[in-house]
Amino acid sequence: MEYAEERDLVRRTLNGDAGAFNSLYKRHHARILATLIGRTRNRHDAEDLMQVTFLRAYRGLSGFRGEAAFSTWLMQIALNVCTTHMRSKQARRSWQKTIEDTQLGYRDRWEPASTERPDDALSRKECREMLEESIAELPQRYRHAVRLRYVKDRSYAEIARELGVPMGTLKTWLHRARHQLQESLNDTELAAM
Predict the structure, then answer these.
(1) CATH classification code of 101-192
(2) Per-residue 3-state assignment (H helix, E strand, C coil) for 130-179
């Protein structure tokens, strides 16, 4: 598509012509989708991210200055959406594993290694913050059990004794807390898109 034609379609879209944006979508969606599939290695995720890309492009169309081709501007949006998704997914995997790992307290997992890259340290920090926020939203009894188990690394027997509850109750609380934390993480990831 020629540069002038793209700018005309953008102008028409801004003037309320929905068909103009549809034309932009039809001309660029295959390339955007292919790029996102290549980056995510998951067609379903790529299709979702493509929709987010076009939604953000539509909402931010007034910010398109025309200094570069529309396709370049759109691709940058797609890459930003993908990067955010991948960071969120990486953080989710990291803290889900931590929550499910009964051998280590979660603070141990965020001690930076001397060779850790800055972006890994940032992901670790974001993951810790998301986990702390999600734990704070748990009901008090679950929150207390989670902190004793995963922060203070107490055994199930010690926690049951300290909380004065049967072992089965404690295991139920921790199971429910892990489930709620996983749901909270999934909601956080969707909200980030």
Answers:
(1) 1.10.10.10
(2) HHHHHHHCCCHHHHHHHHHHHHCCCCHHHHHHHHCCCHHHHHHHHHHHHH
